[in-house]
Structures are given as C-alpha cells and as structure tokens.
Amino acid sequence: MIKKIPSPKAWRIKNGFSLAELTITTAIVGVLVSVAYPNYVNHNNKAKLFDAKSTISAIPPIISAFIDKTGETPSSWDDLSSIAVVMTKNGPATGKLNTPITLPNSIYDLSITGPANSVYTLIATRVVDRGKSDPCAENANDCTEYGFSIKSCFNISNGASDIKSGKLSEIADTLNCS
C-alpha cells in the first residue's frame, strides 16, 4: 500500500490575510474616510456656529432686563449676572463687557460694545482668528461658510435686534437694528 505524503502547502495553516488583501482593504477604508471626514468637520463647525448664535441671541433679553430693573446700562458681565449668568468655558463671565469671553462648548470669543446711539453690538470671532483682521486673507482655501465671525446688534430704545454670520468685513454694515 502506497502512503500519500501531504505536500508542504497542506502543512501550512492559513491564519491571516495576504499583503494584497490588506492593501486593498486599507485603500477602500482610506477612500471612505476621505469622503466622510470633510462632511463630519463641516457639520461639527456648523453645530458650533449655531450654538454660539443661540448663546448670543440670549444676551439681548438679559441686557434689557438689567436696564428695566436698574434703569442703567450694564457695563460688565457681573452686571448681567445679576439677572442671568452668562457662562464661559471657565464658569460665569466676569469683567468688562468689551473683554472677550470664550463661549462654552464653542470655538468663539464674544465681546460687547455699546451702547452707541442706544445700540449694543455683539461680536463673536473664532478663537483661532483672534487678532486677525481677515482670517481668510492668508489662505482662502481654508475658509468655509462656517469659518467666520458672528455679529449681532440690539437697540435698547425699541428692542430691535439682528444677527448675521460671515466675514466681518461683509456683514459689518448689513445689520438692521433701527
């Protein structure tokens, strides 16, 4: 009787993937990530923009309530905190109104100027853009519709308010608070 001897290939047990299989899988995952990641970043920035806008929209009623209660215009975040606390990343906002505060869960710094002709102006800029006159001047390819500032105004004499987002130079004169 002749005994069959197994070939060397039969002795090997296949416990992994070949280099070709790993390369193809990595390429497929890379393509999927390159398509999905920009959408993720845009949606994340959009959420931060709308969060900052909602926080900014809540401040004019606090200013109005302070004026109604005291008969004076607020000059500090502490004045506004006597009505309702405006939160920052580090707790309640303190200091002068024109001193920027970093909004919670946000990439925006907020400062308030005014009242000039009965109008308060609220400006929020991205923390990374602080001190730059035009954040898109260095590299226009880095700018997206969510990579801009937020500007709002509030007229204490008639209660009118407006809020816009975009490049500060483009939205500066488009607010209507009269």
Q: Which architecture does the CATH hierarchy give at level 2?
A: 2-Layer Sandwich
Unreliable residue stretches = 140-146
Order of helices and strands: HHHEEEEEEEH
The average pLDDT score comes to 81
Share of helix, binned: 25-40%
Short structural summary:
With 178 residues, the protein is of the alpha+beta class. The protein has 4 helices and 7 strands; from the N terminus they run αααβββββββα. It has one domain: 2-Layer Sandwich (Glycoprotein, Type 4 Pilin).
Provide a descriptive summary of the structure in words:
- With 178 residues, this protein is α+β, with helices and mostly antiparallel strands.
- The chain has one domain: Glycoprotein, Type 4 Pilin (2-Layer Sandwich).
- It contains 4 helices and 7 strands; from the N terminus they run αααβββββββα.
- The strands form 2 sheets. It has a 5-stranded antiparallel sheet.
- β3 (101-102) and β4 form a beta hairpin.
- The radius of gyration is 28 Å and the shape is elongated.
- The model is unreliable at 140-146 (pLDDT under 50).
